[in-house]
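User: I'll paste a sequence; please echo it back and then give the predicted structure.

Assistant: Echoing your sequence first, then the prediction.
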Amino acid sequence: MSALSFAFTHFIRNLLTPPGDICLTCGGKSRLVRNWPGICQRCADGIPWIDKARCLYCGRAFGCPDCLRMEVRDRAFILNRSAVQYSDVMREWLAQYKYRGHERYAQLLIRMMSHTLVQMEREISALHSGAGQPASKMRWKPDMITFVPVSTTRLMERGFNQAQVLAEGLGKIHHIPIVPLLIRSEHTGKQSFKTRQERIQSMQHAFVIDPEGLQFINSIRLDWSTRSKRSLTGTPQSMGALRILLIDDIYTTGSTVNTCSGVMQNAVQHYYGLKTEIFSLTWARS
């Protein structure tokens, strides 16, 4: 087929094909991709994925001076992974969802984070595998998902907690229980207007444990104890540590994730004597 014939056939096919939906992000009228709800192929191709973190601790896509600082050596969480780099385009996507209440973005962001959670599970499973043992035999999975809470003031402004919506969507896809473990005890204002040190200081007393969430952890503890007594081969593997996945929309300095993780670790240890491993998953890494 000549180039002219091909172009003519393509033109006729486009005329006969029903028009596509309007892309959520660029407003173009074209066919939407199946994997990422609401967006066209061009926008999907432009997503700045973090397929392989350069910093294995905070999940940054490039060199990370933050994780070389002395004060981060005693962080309360194991690691963070993020779906995308916080580019100008991603900043606009988050603004549409978080500040302008564009609900259709929620499913897009949830699906993107789900993709990264699968990668995260494979990565951690491989790290935990023994020598010569397939990663599939040591599949890592969190025992529960929780989320960074917002203050009452912020909740009234937006009408929803963006991190909670993301967490609930992930829990539904991956069949992991959602447990509200934290309460925002102080309204700290917009973090985007603060310096790194100001962010860290403002987060120091911003969260407390939610007593109702602790009840769910107690039910897990009792279940582990029962299974341990019934087991003929020893203690169940998952009793080694309670694995919590903390969800937020964006990771900047890590101060929010670290403060939340410390509160959860201390509470679980104090009330139940359980070791806690906390992992963070955010949509974007700045």
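The radius of gyration is 22 Å. The chain is about 40% helix and 15% strand.
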